[in-house]
Amino acid sequence: LDWTITAFELIGELEKSISGSYDELNGKVGISGSLPIIGQDMFSSLLSRFMRENPKVHVTLRACRPLEALDDIETGVADFGLIAIAQKPERFNATLLCTTPFVLVAPKKHRFQISPAPLPEELQNLPFVMYMGNDKKEVYSPWLTSEQLKGLTGKTAMTLNQYQLVLQYIAKGSVCAIMDELTLKTFPEYHRHLVAYPLSHLLEDLQYFLLTRRHRRLGAAAVTLSQEILTLFRSQKEKKLTPAY
């Protein structure tokens, strides 16, 4: 099936190439990605420049959850995905975009006992937000297993299924959460109400990847854009958040 889909995609790209000019890109590029990646200013600036320079290319950009992005890539809706994944799926090619540390996010004016580098016993005494995933299961973080978090979480105070809501309730002063730093940067409107404590001494960094389906030949426009995205992220060094905003 993979090879059959690839054959039809190749014919489609051939038709686009024949109908277009040799010296300009054309056709469609589909991207499905996580908001922490596609919501960054540097990404939107790159994509806007790419579209100005290639007016015959139509870009479809979809912000979605990782499982939805994988399905888009699998079915050919998206040429590639820009997402964080806990493990590399076997049916996809994955190229590392960037890594980002996990942080403990707490209300700025809190009365919790938290050291600059939080101790496990301090985390165990905190009220946490639980995330609800696509499968309706509750987890402290979509990217960390219960084994990785063993001894690092406290009591569950509430359950939410959306990052912005999580930050809104943390800002109100009642709960804490474990979140990757890149996701936290996506919502700067909450930063003045929050404080972030590093957890790199307890948890490994989260990895974001550019994913494509194996056996798929991308069109010239998709190849060019994906290479520009990789170059952009490789040239950027992640800025570290200070313990307090």
Description:
The chain has 245 residues and is an alpha/beta fold. 32% of the residues lie in helices and 27% in strands. The protein has helices at residues 2-19, 35-38, 41-53, 66-75, 120-123, 163-171, 181-185, 220-235, and strands at residues 27-33, 57-63, 80-84, 92-100, 102-107, 127-132, 138-139, 155-160, 177-180, 194-198, 206-213. The strands form three sheets. It has a five-stranded mixed beta sheet with strand order 2-1-3-11-4, sandwiched between helices. Strands 9-5-10 form a three-stranded antiparallel beta sheet. β6 (127-132) and β7 form a beta hairpin. α3 runs antiparallel to α8. The chain is elongated.
Supply the key terms.
245 residues, alpha/beta, three-stranded antiparallel beta sheet, 8 helices, elongated, disordered C terminus, LysR family transcriptional regulator substrate-binding protein, HTH-type_LysR_regulators
Question: Quick recap of the structure?
Answer:
The protein is 32% helix and 27% strand.
Question: How many E-type strands?
Answer: 11
* Cα-based radius of gyration, to the nearest Å: 20 Å
Instruction: Please indicate the percent range of residues in DSSP E strands (runs of 2 or more).
Output: 25-35%
Distance between the termini: 51 Å
Q: Provide mean pLDDT, rounded.
A: 87
- Overall geometry: elongated
Structural class: alpha/beta
The residue fraction in helices comes out at 25-40%
Provide a count of the helices.
8
The side-by-side strand order for the widest beta sheet comes to: 2-1-3-11-4
- What order do the SSEs take from the amino end to the carboxyl end, as H and E? HEHHEHEEEHEEEHEHEEH
Stretches where pLDDT is under 50 for at least 5 consecutive residues are 240-245
| Largest sheet descriptor | 5 strands, mixed
